[in-house]
Write a structure and sequence with these properties.
With about 270 residues, the chain is mainly α. The protein folds into 2 domains: about 90 residues, no CATH class; about 130 residues, no CATH class. It is built from 10 helices and 3 strands; from the N terminus they run ααββαβααααααα. The two termini are about 40 Å apart.
Length: about 270
């Protein structure tokens, strides 16, 4: 019986480690190298110099949590400005039907002419909207976001390895508990140490080489993200919005907003 548990543990270990290696290679290939320096006397390309030294609030949200995080940020931004009402039941209601930018206009379009919509439906609509795609494409072009072709990325693969570690430990414990009387349990556990060493070793390498893990931001994008409390957006941006963009709805201090986003599946 222990052999069945051992085969399951080995299969999970090998598969998860292989997926992590594949994700790391794909992310490395998708990350562009440093741009070459222009020759003396040449005029810099306008596309290469369009980005300022700071990320926008939407860009921070996308790099930290993808389009769903961006959707949460624009909803809370409009709610704080009293242009949307977010109920703790997970509904959004329009108060002011005028959007100040493309993402806000897309949000109002997602809510619809009735002026009221469930927040999960708004998130899903914004994921495929051109305004959000333009934010993502701009970040990908600048080498800050992981292209869609290589997602799910390193973060998801690392979580698979972590799950494989737990599965190996549970399989070893089950084999030890079900071992017949007089069996060499030391040798049995030694066999399970092989997949355990593989998964822990791969996890350690990923922690050293690839941390912080992200399915959205490249290494360059992670470096652009600030620590919480230091806003890289416009000086007038509330700190609560920066915290939401970086950490998600759980970091909100307003219980009403937190309840609205969490009750809707955030």
């Amino acid at each position: 019986m222990w052999l069945l548990f051992f085969l399951v543990a080995c299969s999970a270990a090998v598969l998860s480690c292989a997926l992590l290696c594949r994700a790391a290679v794909a992310a490395a290939r998708a990350t562009p190298g440093p741009a070459p320096r222009p020759a003396p006397g040449t005029v810099p390309n306008a596309a290469a110099t369009r980005r300022g030294p700071r990320l926008t609030l939407y860009e921070m949200a996308y790099l930290s949590g993808g389009p769903h995080r961006l959707a949460d940020v624009v909803l809370v931004l409009m709610a704080q400005q009293r242009r949307l009402l977010l109920a703790d039941t997970g509904w959004a209601t329009v108060v002011d039907p005028v959007g100040k930018d493309a993402v806000e206009r897309a949000t109002l379009t997602a809510i619809g002419p009735e002026g009221q919509c469930r927040i999960p439906a708004i998130r899903d609509a914004l994921v495929g909207d051109d305004a959000v795609r333009q934010v993502a494409d701009r970040l990908v072009t600048d080498g800050l976001a992981v292209p869609a072709a290589v997602r799910p990325g390193v973060g998801s693969a690392v979580r698979l390895v972590q799950g494989a570690v737990l599965l190996v430990l549970l399989s070893a414990a089950a084999s030890y508990w079900m071992a017949p009387a007089g069996a060499d349990t030391g040798l049995l556990l030694a066999w399970f140490s092989l997949p355990l060493i593989l998964t822990l070793g791969t996890w350690a390498v990923a922690r050293f080489e690839l941390h912080p893990y992200s399915d959205w931001a490249t290494t360059a994008g992670e470096r652009q993200l600030p620590g919480v409390g230091r806003s890289p957006a416009a000086p007038a941006t509330p700190a609560s919005l920066v915290t939401l963009a970086l950490r998600g709805p759980a970091a909100l201090t307003d219980p009403a907003l937190r309840a609205a986003l969490h009750s809707s599946g955030a």
